[in-house]
Design a protein that fits this description.
InterPro entries: Zinc_ribbon_dom. It is built from eleven helices and 23 strands. It is of the alpha+beta class and 485 residues long.
Length: 485
Amino acid sequence: MICPNCNKEIKDGSKFCIFCGANVQSQSNARNDVQNNAQSVQPQVNTPQYNQPQQSVSAQSQNPQFQPNNFQPAGVNQGVFVQPAKPKKPMNKKLLFGIIGGACALLIIIIVSLVLVANHKTKINLSDYIKVSYDGYDAYGTASVEFDYDKYLDDLMKASSSFKKAYNSDMTCKNLYDSDITWSSIADYYDAVDIDYDLDKTSGLSNGDTVTVNFEYDNDAAAQYKIEYVGESKEYTVEGLKETKKIDPFEGITVEFSGTSPNVSAKVVNNSKDEVYENIYYDLSKSYDIKIGDTITVTVSNDPEYFVEDYGCVFTSTTKDFKCTAVDQYVSKTADIKEDTLNAMKKQTEDVINSYFASDSKYIGVSDLKFEGTYFLTEKVDNSWSFNGTNQVYVIYSGKVKSNEEKKQFDETTVYFPVRYADIIEYADGTQYVDTKYASIEGETTLKYSYFSSVKGYTDKSAMYNDLVVAQKADYTEEITDGLK
């Protein structure tokens, strides 16, 4: 069949033209109705005969308006013939759907734009208001941070009209009696405007070090003013610190030890005349109760940071060790007693014993003196400054004691004579000294003579050991010659 709209051939029975989209059936039905109506009202008349001039085919073709079919005969008294109306061209559905889709898309774009505008927040980068400054000397520099609040508040007011209103009214407290202003709104304002910031390091800095500025803020509070803070941690490189002069604080420094080991004292001696060194002060790890061989640590007590600020100098070190040597010392063990020192004590012991018996020879006498050994006691470190001496040596002899009286008071008896010496010193030059002036016999026996007098010494070695050694164990350690316990 032929489409009545575009005159293209389409499939028989089609409802719509596949080329122009016209409703084929509705137009065909309309034409049929018009033709039927025209036929039903057509009058029957006698058509008059006219002598029509002969015209060539070419004349007809040159005058297309002159067509027999266009001739309306005269004498028709009823104008009931109706020219059929041209059918309306149907709407293109694809075009219709495109228009509707475009309108919907435009509406969505408008809605999204309105939402974005309504929710748009101006971003404020907090790093724009930060200034980090450095001061001091390299390795001891300091860093400080400043926040430009004036520019910060100015930018906030430019970014948000609601913030500007809050700043000019609520925060200046000019209109506190305004019903729109509450203390809650003031608190909200301060929550929004309050920015915390700090540096992770502020001292002990060197050129090239990095410091980090950290921020704390409340974007929920700022959202009421359509403001969003951007404040990620940011690193800054330290620069511009002044150079320092490096010095050895122990140049010209000595430690002076004095006294007798283990009771030596120490002090720092500064031999420098330089003003910088004269203003350096020192601490000692130990200043007394020092013994030979001990190591003393001297530490600079000045604050290096303040010293750099005052003199522009940095210490190459702050501690140094000094060993206690070449001082006098108390002998601390039997093996350290030199032979000539021991011989001097032995000779003095014999003299003391002989002198004692010589003074009472009318009543008592002694024979067969024999060196038995020694008790050597050394003062414990935790019990220094004992009244009995830093060290004690009991030089012990034995002898046979008899009664010289006419009537014998006791039988001949072996007696042990301990004679005490204290504080034996070895000088720094290696020589030793022992004071023998006050040596005397220790102890007393049960051997009686002359009006109830008793012979000095001990007849029982165990009793002698108990009285002279065991009784002093709390303060002294001992070395005992074999056979004397």
